[in-house]
Amino acid sequence: AKKHGGNRYVFFSQELANQNERVRLIANNVVHALANQEYFMVYQPVYDLSTKKITSYEALLRWESPIIGQVSPVEFIPLLEESDLIIPVGRWIFRQVITQIKLWEEEGHEDFHVAINISVKHMMHPDFLYDVKSIIHEMKISPQRLIFEITETVAVQNTDLAIQILSELNILGVKTALDDFGTGYSSLSVLKLLPIQQVKVDRSFIVEMEQDGEKSLVILQGVLDIAKNLGMSTVMEGVETPEQLELLRELGAQKIQGYLISRPVVAELAIELRKQTWLH
Ligand code: C2E
Ligand code: CA
Ligand code: CA
Ligand code: CA
After folding, report:
1. Which residue's alpha carbon is at the smallest distance from atom 45 of ligand 1?
2. What is each CA distance from 242 to 135, 213, 261, in whole angstroms?
3. Nearest to 89 by CA among 36, 44, 155
4. Strand 39-48, strand 255-256: pairing
5. CB-defined site of ligand 1, < 6 Å
6. Which residue's CA lies nearest to atom 46 of ligand 1?
7. Residue 198: DSSP 8-state
8. Nearest to 80 by CA among 38, 139, 129
9. In this protein, which residues make up the domain named EAL (predicted)?
């Protein structure tokens, strides 16, 4: 038994060592990912339940490391945010997405929006608004195409500055969305505080809805109603099954995003999906 226990200990510590090694590899290599052109963007459609059309896309960052392979943004975005790397990477993402929007406009596509995830640190950077304005101006795209997704942590550090920047974005014509709604602590008060036009309801609501039933359903209904009554549009994240979609439709959900419609895909595929006739 002693030997067995010893082996298990060895097994777990080996697993831990592998995990530490991965974390170390990611930290060491993410520093060069931008310069080495290892990033690319994918786009996940957002589907409107009433018009049965894809109305927008969320742009999501991907890192394909030649040494580590595909690394999830969940693993490396926090590292970029800890260092100041999120600023140049954020700028690159912005330029990348604006270039894509320009291309789609030139191809004649109309009535679409693209959402970009904005790190709080990037948004609070003194150059942020200037950067945004100059790239939009340089590329001559319509600012109305853009949605900036931010999380509620934006309101924690410097609420006044956050309100000011978000308002300026709105004046430019850029829409603002509150991402991961319901995962933090102050979600409801943030809705009241910040100038935002859209609420993205976190996937955890759907998971809980199916696990604990009635109570979670009532809460989700409440969230959708509150957002609607505040004049904000809603996007339900992480919809994976037709059953979930039907339930959400009954609750009055407007827009959905999730694997049921499509996974995040490269731009060419994403825009193709708009031609498809949707039955949901
Ligand atoms: P997020 O902003 O909440 O993005 C939604 C995440 O949910 C994406 O993961 C997406 O692939 C995933 N997802 C979409 N539909 C489904 C579904 O039906 N089921 C499940 N289980 N998952 C679904 P991803 O791309 O791995 O991104 C993770 C997080 O990394 C994002 O969460 C966001 O916080 C961050 N991130 C990704 N791209 C960027 C970026 O360009 N800039 C910044 N600042 N953060 C980013
Ligand atoms: Ca997001
Ligand atoms: Ca989200
Ligand atoms: Ca998230």
Report:
1. 117
2. 40, 17, 10
3. 36
4. antiparallel
5. 44, 60-61, 72-74, 77, 93, 117, 119, 179-180, 203, 238-240, 257-259, 264
6. 117
7. E
8. 38
9. 23-278
Residues near 66 by beta carbon (within 8 Å), at least 6 away in sequence: 38
Of 58, 168, 77, whose CA–CA distance to 121 is shortest?
A: 77
Q: What span, in angstroms and rounded, lies between the C-alpha atoms of 137 and 103?
A: 15
Q: What is the pTM of this model?
A: 0.94
Q: Environment class of residue 62 by beta-carbon count within 10 Å: exposed (0-12), middle (13-18) or buried (19+)?
A: middle
Contacts of 123 (CB under 8 A, 6+ apart): 148, 150, 154, 162, 165
Q: How far apart are CA 211 and CA 251, in angstroms?
A: 17
- Concatenating the DSSP letter of every residue in 214-262 gives HHHHHHHHHHHHHHHHTT-EEEE----SHHHHHHHHHTT--EE-STTT-
Count CA atoms closer than 13 A to 39's CA, side-chain side: 26
- Residue located nearest, by CA, to atom 3 of ligand 1: 180
Give residue for tokens 């308002």. Answer: 167
pLDDT averages per 10-residue partition of the chain, 280 residues: 54 80 95 98 98 97 97 97 96 98 97 97 96 96 97 89 97 97 86 95 91 87 95 97 95 97 98 93
Residues 6+ apart with CB under 8 A from 198: 147, 175, 176, 177, 178, 232, 233, 234, 235
Give dist(CA 48, CA 253) in Å, integer: 9
